[in-house]
Amino acid sequence: MDYQDILYSVGDRVATITLNRPDRMNAWTPTMERDVRHAMEAAAADDGVRVIVLTGAGRAFCAGADMDALKGLDPNDIKRRGGDLPAFDMNRRPDWQTRYGFYPSIAKPIIAMLNGATAGIGLVHALYCDLRFATDNTVFTTAFSRRGLIAEHGISWMLPHIVGHANALDLLLSARRVSSEEALRIGLVNRLCPPDKLREETYAYARDLADFVSPSAMAVIKRQVYDVPFQTLAEATIDANREMHVALQGADFREGVASFMEKRPPKFKGG
């Protein structure tokens, strides 16, 4: 596919999706929405990809929705756009098949590499990623309430699960600017890096996952963690016992044990 608003590349079993409108601080557009969704699904289907990195070109990750596009937005467009979604997948939880909330259904780790301003819908996408690495000068804001808008695209569900109820209400009601230091303190991001070290540290982490961690184990663990809000403790335990039975019969388990005993790097195949 010829992408217009993103760049897509694969190297060392890591797929990189780069929002590519640097002159507009990677402001979100319908074209970018289409491109990102296609690239995410392509990376998910590629056996040569084990980790996905989502980032932005230039000095921002994503400064929010393109305001020029919002000026002429038809309020009914939000409802109509639902028809653009892929066909319903019976093998995926319905909660993770919404317009933007599909990242948790992708059975590979997704790391948001936040290279600058992360606002509005840009923050929504960062939250749907599994991990967030940011520069130590990144600024965050939900933005919506200061534009007369509500908590969009599931952020009212996702944000409290990451930073807690009170912090989520603070960030959503005030739409104030949040520093990288505060973001780390409240758990909004996992790691802060100097700007010139962000790429190095993010890809070192991504390659470590790709090279030394079982892809089948990562897929199951990711699903388990995202299923938990919908489960009781008993249900989560029963599910874990069932998955453990499967894992113990898998090739990745045998390779994990063999590589440990033989003191060599593992050669996981994903089974």
Task: List the SSEs and their pairings.
Elements: E1 6-11, E2 14-19, H1 30-45, E3 51-56, E4 60-62, H2 67-71, H3 77-80, E5 110-114, E6 117-119, H4 121-128, E7 131-135, E8 140-141, H5 155-163, H6 165-174, H7 180-185, E9 191-193, H8 198-212, H9 215-227, H10 233-248, H11 251-261
Weakly predicted, low-confidence segments: none
Q: What is the alpha-carbon Rg in Å?
A: 19 Å
What is the string of SSEs from the N terminus onward? EEHEEHHEEHEEHHHEHHHH
Report the sheet with the most strands, covering strand number, pairing sense and barrel closure: 6 strands, mixed
Q: Would you tell me which CATH topology of the largest domain applies?
A: 2-enoyl-CoA Hydratase, Chain A, domain 1
* Mean pLDDT reading: 91
Can you say what the CATH homologous superfamily of the largest domain is? 2-enoyl-CoA Hydratase, Chain A, domain 1
Give the second-level CATH assignment, the architecture of the largest domain.
Alpha-Beta Complex
Characterization of the model:
The chain is of the alpha/beta class and about 270 residues long. It has two domains: about 200 residues, 2-enoyl-CoA Hydratase, Chain A, domain 1; about 50 residues, no CATH class. It contains eleven helices and nine strands. The strands form two sheets. It has a six-stranded mixed β-sheet, sandwiched between helices. A three-stranded parallel β-sheet has the order 4-6-8. Helix 5 crosses helix 6 and helix 9 packs antiparallel against helix 10. The chain is globular and about 55 Å long. The two termini are about 30 Å apart. About 35% of the residues are buried. The mean pLDDT is about 90.
